[in-house]
Amino acid sequence: MKKYIIASIGIxxxxxxxxxxxxxxxxxxxIFNTKVDSVTLTxxxxxxxxxxxxxxxxxxxxxxxxxxxxxxxxxxxxxxEDRINIILREESDIKIYGDGANLNTFxxxxxxxxxxxxxxxxxxMLEYNQKRAxxxxxxxxxxxxxxxISKDLQGAHSDFISNREIFVAQNRNSPALLPAMTTYDVNTxxxxxxxxxxxxxxxxxxxxxxxxxxxxxxxQKAQKEAMDFLSPGKEAPDxxxxxxxxxxxxxxxxxxxxxxxxxxxxxxxxxxxxxxxAVVKLYNEYKDKGFTIMSxxxxxxxxxxxxxxxxxxxxxxxxxxDLQGWSCAAAxxxxxxxxxxxxxxxxxxKIIQTKLRGAELEQxxxxxxxx
Length: 371
Description:
- The protein is an alpha+beta fold.
- The protein has two domains: 1-226, no CATH class; 240-368, 3-Layer(aba) Sandwich (Glutaredoxin), CATH 3.40.30.10.
- The protein is built from nine helices and 15 strands.
- It has helices at residues 113-141, 146-170, 178-181, 190-200, 208-226, 270-286, 302-312, 329-333, 358-368; strands at 23-32, 38-45, 48-56, 62-69, 73-79, 82-88, 92-99, 107-110, 240-242, 249-251, 259-265, 291-297, 319-320, 341-345, 351-354.
- A five-stranded mixed sheet has the order 13-12-11-14-15, covered by helices on one side. A four-stranded mixed sheet has the order 4-1-7-8. Strands 3-2-5-6 form a four-stranded antiparallel sheet.
- Strand 14 and strand 15 (351-354) form a beta hairpin.
- The longest helix is centred in the middle third of the chain and has 29 residues, at 113-141.
- The radius of gyration is 25 Å and the shape is elongated.
């Protein structure tokens, strides 16, 4: 399962600028039950907020913004530490009403259905992220309840996917779909990712964020086409490499007949080392059922590689490396651009999936071994 992370304003923002005339907009409303005395219209550009207008808020919570923005796009209303994501078009006239004590739950956007719908989805995403984080924490602290917690985690994920499908169906061809783009796993949900990318390409003409999102889709598509040789069902490219003793060679095909996790890693890779305990647990759990691991190190010297194997308890025997770092022949063959990078391979030597880690890998192994 994938954790869905939104940018600080809830959606992806572009750092592009378009040469066009600023457009007039109006935003007003009432936020009661708050100690805030001002409201700011801003936009997340690059890695920071770029403020456009700041207006006072009355003691009763009334405010009104009448200004121009650079282009139709995604913007943010800042009310204290609360952030409300909105979509602004030319002549937009949006009204916002809410409870300042709990704007995440009690906030109504009038005059922009796309902004209102986008807010509903972002709220669902944040709630799912929080629930997932809590359940993953419990997995660490309550190992005795692992099976029950895993079921809850899978259920929460299924519920979110169902909500996302409804959201996409109800907002076809709308820029409100942009935050949903961050939730698709391009490795396992490509057809849905591509469908939404194409739907929103022309949904908000002149929007740098939409253009940036489409450019990102094109880049992902090019990468996917380049990596198509690792798509599920394709035969895993074979290779031969030196083992830890520096003398013995082994081939990936030597492990044919077992389910193999091909794991590219290195002793200096923090994310790899943090992932290792989970990998060790899964190896111990499934090794007697036909599961094994072949670890390909991108180290350049033997000593730290060997020490990391011992320290992390990587007890399987299939450790190989030519000690050439990123120039490792096997990594080049698999076009590895970042680590950890994994390829799960079936007993016939065909690829099941790539980039599986953590709970996703655990769920796939449960499926394979019919638990």
